[in-house]
Amino acid sequence: MLRLKTLCALLLALAGLGSVALAVEQGAAAPPGAPAASPPKPLLWKVSDADNAIYLLGSFHLLKPEDYPLSPDIDAAFTEASKVVFEVPPEQMLDPATGQKFLAAAGYADGRSLSQVLPADLREKFARILAQRGATLAQFDGYEPWFVNLSLLIGVSQQMGFRAEQGLDQFLMQQALAAKKPTAGLETIDDQLRVLDASPMEEQIAGLREFLDKPLEMPGKLAELHGAWREGDVARLDALSREEMRGKTPQTYRLVNVERNDAWLPQLQRMLDGVAGEQALVVVGALHLLGEDGLVEKLRGKGYAVERICSACAPAANDAQFAR
After folding, report:
1. Dihedral of CA 160/39/290/278: which sign?
2. Interval 95-138: pLDDT, tens
3. Pick from 128, 172, 182, 256: most CB atoms within 10 A?
4. d(CA 103, CA 88)
5. Is residue 49 part of a domain?
6. What total number of domains does the chain contain?
7. Which DSSP string do the residues of 58-119 spell out, in sequence order?
8. In the predicted model, is pLDDT for residue 295 greater than 70?
9. For residue 160, is it within any domain?
């Protein structure tokens, strides 16, 4: 679906990647891992008006055991929140049928196959690579290139120790369930499926070509993105994900980021304009909080007060504007 950096950026955009991971790697166990020396610096903002506030938290949808424990800032926001809102309602994300929905959506509605849509040279290259791993093209023939791309990404991330069940959103879903906090979603899993499936076929094919041309680059790209997220480095994360996606795949960027942010913005405003004193923690992929198209800047533009919450960050980092 996307070029290498843009494909990695999906880890910051679509909560449903966890469902893809579960569909591709059913029952994969998380590897043992020592706790990190310090918690990741949170991508956390408090947005408020005269009598209400919400917290916006940027998630990485696949993480490692050593990415825990979380920052005390996130713990405090979670404790203060009267409800926790995710991209997709937890009952849909945690439904075992969701993985099968992804597999069904990845098929061809017009009866074509992967072998038919791929150019001959790319089809032959993919077949050779699969043969080296004891697989065949026939195993992927029923799926569109976007799903093949995501499957390759999930495979690489699994080898690096990332797990869907360790993702920040899924972790907080379990925390909310244990604390009996109300939860909600900004969209449905079907909405996310439509976004994935709407990517232009030429972008899907170009993304698969780049992946297969540079397979050894993906671990480094993923590690770089994860490192920027752990450091809470907004400018670096923006350059590695949002700017790459916007510049190289503008149609996908519009579908994955801009249109969804625009659909979520009125919902966030209703939370801010609701019952005084009720605070929500809103957990979305970090991509949705970055840059001028991000929810943070969109809410700032609506006149709300915006404050970065990161006690482990240097003061300048909390005050800095997003990279343009």
Report:
1. positive
2. 888 888 888 889 998 999 999 999 999 999 999 999 998 999 99
3. 256
4. 18
5. yes
6. 1
7. EE-SSB-GGG-SPPHHHHHHHHH-SEEEESS-HHHHT-THHHHHHHHHTS-TTS--HHHHS-
8. yes
9. yes
